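Example for tutorial group B:
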């Protein structure tokens, strides 16, 4: 009987210990009833999972990824010789207008000398300071006879030479907005552009000037509206009708540059309506239809320049390219991103949250739909 009583007490203690353990698990560990009996629970992992769920944005939109395409810039550029020929043929009919505008241009260039000289002075000062900062001093390997007598206390008896970096390491690319919204500002912008060209000539740095337009190919009759540049899947498409008119180049002769300045002066004056008396100045001649002001394919031009600029930098042998955009506003919308579905290829528009991916730097840029 004594043994039987002892066994009964032991069983009771075990049952109590089991109950205490279960209670402590519920209070201290916040165990759930869903966990199977006797199976350990990963509490830290569950807490992490619950925290991640709280970070989910249930109202977030699907992101659209688009890569910048690689294009051949030469397919979009109209060379300056072609531009000179086409504009020259247009302005041969009205002699008085041509003669009057040429006199105005010469007066403008003469008045601009002070401004251009100041720009050149500032550039030379900055360039000299930069050269001094990057000057390299090295030994020549030849003894400096004037310091030879100091050999007992001077270890440096060799002549030195200071090397300054060359001044031909700068280049400039200017891009002019040739769109309809520029009509009231075109003459002033062209004046600014001509002064920049004069500055580049004075400093003898390589330069190119382009105007981005949507009218050249349309008016020339070899563009079908609604077609876009053929790109790969997942790449952003650009309009086929964008052209870069090469107005100026450091490769031009002085005579070609003078002609181009004159033609652009006439275009700017015609659009800005700054003529007083037709009997005195001559009848203002409209530019050729393919040189009319159209849309604003700025984004398309930037994509094309991403191919042109590295090539030009290498060809011109410059270390630094300064790119200047002379524009008055935002670009036209891009067509979208090339995609495909069961019906074939199509262009997915930027209607949601978008990520633009630069294939060179692999950087990503977020922008909203438009």
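The residue assignment follows.
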């Amino acid at each position: 009987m004594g043994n039987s009583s002892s066994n009964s007490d032991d069983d009771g203690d075990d049952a109590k210990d089991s109950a205490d353990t279960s209670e402590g698990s519920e209070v201290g560990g916040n165990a759930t009833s869903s966990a199977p009996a006797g199976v350990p629970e990963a509490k830290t992992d569950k807490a992490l999972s619950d925290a991640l769920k709280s970070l989910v944005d249930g109202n977030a939109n699907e992101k659209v990824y688009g890569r910048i395409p690689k294009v051949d810039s030469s397919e979009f550029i109209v060379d300056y010789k072609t531009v000179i020929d086409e504009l020259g043929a247009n302005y041969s009919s009205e002699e008085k207008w041509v003669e009057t505008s040429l006199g105005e241009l010469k007066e403008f260039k003469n008045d601009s000398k002070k401004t251009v000289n100041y720009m050149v002075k500032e550039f030379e000062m900055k360039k000299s300071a930069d050269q001094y900062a990057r000057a390299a001093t090295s030994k020549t390997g030849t003894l400096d006879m004037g310091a030879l007598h100091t050999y007992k206390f001077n270890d440096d008896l060799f002549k030195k030479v200071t090397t300054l970096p060359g001044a031909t390491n700068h280049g400039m690319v200017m891009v002019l907005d040739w769109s309809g919204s520029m009509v009231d500002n075109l003459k002033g912008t062209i004046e600014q552009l001509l002064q920049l060209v004069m500055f580049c000539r004075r400093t003898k740095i390589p330069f190119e000037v382009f105007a981005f337009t949507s009218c050249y190919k349309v008016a020339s009759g070899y563009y079908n509206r609604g077609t876009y540049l053929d790109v790969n899947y997942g790449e952003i498409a650009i309009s086929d009708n964008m052209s870069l008119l090469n107005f100026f180049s450091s490769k031009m002769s002085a005579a070609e540059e003078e002609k181009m300045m004159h033609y652009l002066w006439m275009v700017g004056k015609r659009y800005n309506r700054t003529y007083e008396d037709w009997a005195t100045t001559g009848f203002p001649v409209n530019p050729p239809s393919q040189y009319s002001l159209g849309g604003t394919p700025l984004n398309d031009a930037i994509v094309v320049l991403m191919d042109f600029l590295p090539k030009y930098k290498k060809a011109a042998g410059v270390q630094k390219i300064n790119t200047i955009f002379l524009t008055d506003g935002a670009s036209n919308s891009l067509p979208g991103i090339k995609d495909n579905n069961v019906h074939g290829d199509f262009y997915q528009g930027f209607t949601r949250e978008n990520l633009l991916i630069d294939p060179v730097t692999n950087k990503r840029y977020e922008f909203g739909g438009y």
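Residues 1-8, 15-32 have pLDDT under 50 and may be disordered. Compare this with the pattern of hydrophobic and polar residues in the output above.
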